[in-house]
Amino acid sequence: MDSLWKVGLLLCSALCVNGIMWKLEPNTHKCLKEELHQNVLVTGEFGVSEAPGQKVDYVVRDSKGHILAQREDAPSEGKFSFTTETYDTFEICFMSRVPQHQRSIAQEISLITKHGVEAKNYEGIGEAAKLKPIEVELRRLEDLSSDIVNDFAMMRKREEEMRDTNESTNSRVLYFSIFSMLCLLGLATWQVLYLRRYFKAKKLIE
């Protein structure tokens, strides 16, 4: 059981840090999205390869368009941080700006994001609270355990929501199928009665 718990802690630590690198073409943009819980600290470190006359902007916003961090003409290296207020999908966008009629090249963008336990500065927390190294590590493990519990709770909630949605969809499909069958039976009955009256009017049947 202890080994499984350690594996879970290691997995959570790995998932709390995301690193990516890509090439940003001139006058284009690229956005990265991620779902985060409420009250989660997020930090990011980015690097932009230099290109004469070319500028790169970045912006961090939520699904409602609220800007959480923004910088025009970003330096070759920089950092940003924000804290989520609600459970939402957040996106980080990098935009390239190149003047017209200027020769341009693709710029290399590197981004490392951390959230939750990995984003906190426990050394600073320990110094401020005058904690011993073992106490700092215990606090980090406590926060990490809380994050794991919250993740499992969120997964369970999503599972319940998906199950309720599936059950509701199945019920609606069943009722729609029954309604369609009744409509077809009613239409078939009306068609038979109409043809019967038609043939009687033409004296083709008695």
TrEMBL record:
Presence of the UniProt keyword Kinase in the record: no
PROSITE patterns linked: GOLD
Bilayer topology annotation: Single-pass type I membrane protein
Highest taxon above the source species: Eukaryota
Localisation per UniProt entry: Membrane
Signal peptide (from-to): 1-19
Pfam families: EMP24_GP25L
Alphabetical UniProt keywords: Developmental protein, Membrane, Signal, Transmembrane, Transmembrane helix
Transmembrane regions listed in the UniProt entry: 173-195
GOLD domain ranges (all copies): 29-180
Claim: Membrane is one of the keywords in the record: yes
Similarity comment: Belongs to the EMP24/GP25L family.
PANTHER family: TRANSMEMBRANE EMP24 DOMAIN-CONTAINING PROTEIN
Name of the protein this chain belongs to: Transmembrane emp24 domain-containing protein bai
Species, as recorded: Nicrophorus vespilloides (Boreal carrion beetle)
